[in-house]
Recover the amino acids of this structure.
């Protein structure tokens, strides 16, 4: 039973963004290419984001990581939230500025957001399937020769922890991705306002929203538990949905062309056949 629940969880993580994108494409005539652009930009943003976090947190140790101290936890959470906001929302801004220059409508902004948050959910779902599948095979005695003996106790501990997870807790992964998709759609629309309204403050608003969401999630999961954390993220998701509909605008309508006037049949001119007209007709 637990294998089916894990499979359902990861399958939902993969399928949800695709269903969302199909709905946006059908209802708002947004091209799938924008989904692909959003997905590529998310991956590109992580190429800078992940090494940056490693440098600040581990290499240079500029931010305290002792989460047992409240002040350190707050600084640590704010750093993680702000770095994610700057890199991801900055990447969104550059996408609108240099790549998706025609994405200036509500539907196209949603499709970019679906691709940005969707590829994150898809990658997490795929990695989850691989990891759980590998642990399940090891639990059944396969690939034991590939594991160093000194690491075997750690692997067994991990297997016990994973497969003793309560069934409702397993589905929290898909729930979290659903909430995250709502936030990504809202932040995509917020950044788009920079170009629709010509005001850079919308980019700052998106970075701030991203920072608050991520920082709150880090503090909640460290202080309480996964259920409380997801409840709090759910509130952010509802507020994100409110932002989405607050920024909703009608799609532009192509002007209807006036019909061409009705063509009247041409009538042959009544020309008297003379020697002169017959001579001219040889050259027409």
């Amino acid at each position: 039973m637990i294998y089916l629940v894990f499979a359902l969880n990861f399958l939902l993580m993969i399928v949800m963004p695709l269903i969302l994108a199909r709905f946006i494409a059908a209802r708002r005539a947004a091209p799938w290419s924008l989904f692909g652009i959003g997905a590529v930009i998310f991956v590109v943003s992580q190429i800078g984001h992940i090494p940056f976090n490693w440098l600040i947190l581990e290499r240079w140790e500029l931010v305290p990581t002792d989460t047992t101290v409240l002040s350190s936890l707050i600084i640590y959470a704010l750093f993680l939230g702000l770095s994610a906001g700057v890199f991801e929302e900055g990447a969104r801004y550059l996408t609108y500025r240099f790549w998706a220059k025609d994405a200036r409508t509500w539907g196209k902004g949603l499709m970019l957001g679906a691709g940005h948050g969707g590829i994150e959910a898809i990658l997490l779902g795929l990695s989850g399937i691989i990891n759980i599948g590998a642990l399940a095979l090891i639990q059944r005695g396969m690939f034991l020769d590939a594991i160093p003996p000194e690491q075997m106790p750690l692997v067994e501990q991990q297997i016990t922890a994973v497969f003793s997870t309560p069934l409702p807790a397993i589905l929290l992964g898909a729930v979290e991705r659903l909430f995250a998709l709502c936030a990504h759609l809202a932040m995509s629309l917020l950044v788009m306002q920079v170009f629709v309204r010509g005001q850079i403050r919308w980019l700052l608003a998106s970075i701030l929203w991203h920072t608050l969401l991520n920082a709150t999630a880090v503090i909640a999961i460290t202080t309480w538990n996964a259920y409380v954390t997801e409840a709090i993220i759910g509130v952010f998701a509802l507020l994100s949905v409110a932002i989405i509909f607050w920024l909703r605008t009608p799609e532009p309508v192509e002007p209807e062309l006036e019909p061409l006037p009705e063509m009247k049949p041409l009538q042959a001119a009544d020309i008297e056949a003379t020697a002169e007209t017959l001579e001219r007709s040889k050259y027409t």
